[in-house]
Structures are given as C-alpha cells and as structure tokens.
Design brief:
Length: 215
C-alpha cells in the first residue's frame, strides 16, 4: 500500500472530440448495412430516470428505491446519411421526393471520441460509444438567409432508446469501449465489424457478441 498521489505524469486524462460516426439501419431484427455519418458536430448523452423515492418507517428514512434508468442522446450534425431519412419519418415516393410524417425507423449508432493525456496528447486512446434501439424525435429545422457572414445550418435530433438484452445483466441501450483497456487485436476485430471490410459490410454487434469478441 502507498499514499495517494495526485496528477502523476501520464495520468492527467481528458476527453474531447467526436468523429467516425456510423449509422446502422435496423433490418430483419439486426443492425446491418452500416453507413458513414459525415458532418457530426456533437454527440450528447442524456440519461434520465435513476431517481430515488424515499420510503419512511419508524419515524426515519427506511430505504431509497431507485427508478429505472433510460438512455437518451442528442445528435448534432451538418448533414445526415440518405438512409437516415427513414428514421426521420421521410419516405421516398418518387426519385428525390419524400413524404414526411411516416413511421420512424429504428437504428443503431457508433461514434468515436478521443482520450488524451499530458504525455501522448490526443493520441493516447479513444472511446467507442455504441447505442442500440434508437428512435429520432421530430426536431426544429431553421433556415436562414445567406449573407456576408454565412453559416451552415447545424441540425439536431433528440434520440430515445429501447434497451437490448445482455446475459447476466439488465438490458442496456448503451455500451462504451475504452481502447486503452482492450487487447489491440480483439479491438481490431470489433472495428472490422463496426466499420466493415473489403469482404463484409459494416454491422453493429449486440452486447453479448461484443463480450465474446473482447474476452
């Protein structure tokens, strides 16, 4: 045992950035046919629930009961993949013509964020954020005139989720994978699945498959 030391060299960690977004349409109960999501500007996790309800007995607090937790997120981007139209409730009725207010398709999501430290900078590592059972809520889209200080419109979507099963645990809609703690070869196998290869299209493995891949 030793005394706690603060701010050791190499342990001043931070997180930043968002890139390498992939959207996976739900097809035949699987997240297959992953496509690149260009123009991502933000990925915000918005969990809700997990709130305590106090029970009282014998004139004192007896126990806290915690409500179920739900995972939600916000995606911000300058654009979105063609395949995301179905998730926005847009259905093509003729080439280039979309009818809105249709049923919104379910999709999966993968984004990558950076882990940095005081030695390696932003090359220290990264995290993969995998989200299951996503459904995009309607959101405001605001168009403005082009002027002498032009700006691209930054679109935003609130995402609700439905958890998927995990053996031996409660269902979850979110996995986080830290590259600094995973075997390099096994991580590559996972990324080959997430991003696709010359021989196979990209897909989003379910949590149990990922657990087997990374064990």
């Amino acid at each position: 045992m030793s005394r706690i030391v603060w701010n050791e060299t190499g342990k001043k960690l931070y997180e930043a950035g968002v890139r390498m977004g992939v959207m996976y349409p739900m097809q035949d109960n699987a997240y297959s046919g992953g496509v690149a999501w260009n123009g991502l500007t933000a990925f915000n996790k918005n969990p809700s629930g997990a709130e305590p309800t106090a029970l009282w007995a014998d004139d004192s607090k007896y126990i806290n009961l915690m409500s179920a937790e739900e995972f939600g997120a916000t995606i911000e981007a300058y654009t979105y993949p063609e395949e995301f139209n179905a998730c926005l409730g847009n259905k093509e009725i003729a080439p280039g013509v979309y009818a809105g207010q249709q049923d919104r398709a379910i999709f999966g999501l993968c984004v990558r964020t950076t882990i940095g430290n005081d030695v390696d900078g932003t090359e220290h590592g990264y995290k993969l954020h995998l989200v299951y059972g996503c459904q995009a809520s309607p959101s405001e889209t605001s168009y403005g005139t082009i002027n002498d200080s032009p700006e691209a419109m930054n679109m935003s979507w609130e995402i609700a989720t439905t958890p998927v099963n995990v053996t031996g645990m409660k269902p979850t809609a979110y996995l986080e994978i830290d590259s600094t703690k995973v075997d390099t070869a096994k991580l590559k196998a996972l990324e080959d699945a997430l991003y696709g290869t010359a021989e196979a299209e990209a897909y989003l493995p379910l949590p149990d498959e990922i657990a087997q891949m990374l064990k």
